[in-house]
Amino acid sequence: MKSEPGSVQLPDALRCPITGAKLELEPDREWVRAVGQPYRYPIRGGIPVLVASAAQPVEDGSGSTG
To answer: Right CATH number for 8-66 from 2.40.30.10, 2.20.25.10, 1.20.210.10, 3.30.2090.10?
Structure first.
C-alpha cells in the first residue's frame, strides 16, 4: 500500500463483505466500491462502513458508478 501526503488509502486486506472482492476508493472519496462487482459502501467519518446492510447497488455491475 503506497500513500502520498494528503491521500486516502485502503489497506489491501479490506474486502467486500458480500463477494470478497478488493475495494477501491471512488473519486469523490465518499464511497468505496468492490472491484468488478455491483456493490459500493459509504465512508462515514473517514471510515468505510463494510457491512452487507450498508451496501448500495452499482448500476452497471462493473464496479463503476458512472
So the answer is: 2.20.25.10
